[in-house]
Amino acid sequence: MIGGQPFWRDQDAIRPVVSALLFEPDEDGPRFVSVHTAIGLAAAMFGVQRHDIISARRHPELVKARALVTWILRNVPVQPMSYPKIGRALGGRDHTTIMHAHQIAIRLRLEDERFARTCRAICIHFGLSRRNRHGN
After folding, report:
1. pLDDT tens digits along 114-129
2. Taking Cα atoms as reference points, which of 80, 136, 134 lies closest to residue 107?
3. What is the dihedral of CA 65, 69, 70, 73, to 10 degrees?
4. Residue 33 to residue 16: CA distance in whole angstroms
5. Model pTM greater than 0.85?
6. Which of 25, 46, 85, 110 is the most buried (most CB within 10 A)?
């Protein structure tokens, strides 16, 4: 909470969290986000522990956090990470589970303002437009 309000409600409050957890975009090189960094950002945004994101627990906030990790790793890097590789990083999940998580992320961007603001802040940080993203 920042000033009595959850930090994701204020774009100016999101920006430092994103900046602290994500590598700065390199003007001359490709965008790179590690799995560790994506998990850290999702943990910070949803107030959960990193180890819970890769656990087998199915709490709704953990499902959303995993969906955010998947969305980040599929949309931010110049070369999107494969579903099997994301699955291995998220506790050995099957690639079809990760594909479903990506679909959840796309749905949440449309239905959940908090999730959508987080994704917009990440896009702003990396200067991503609809044209240079790899999905939704």
Report:
1. 899 999 888 888 777 6
2. 136
3. 170
4. 16
5. no
6. 46
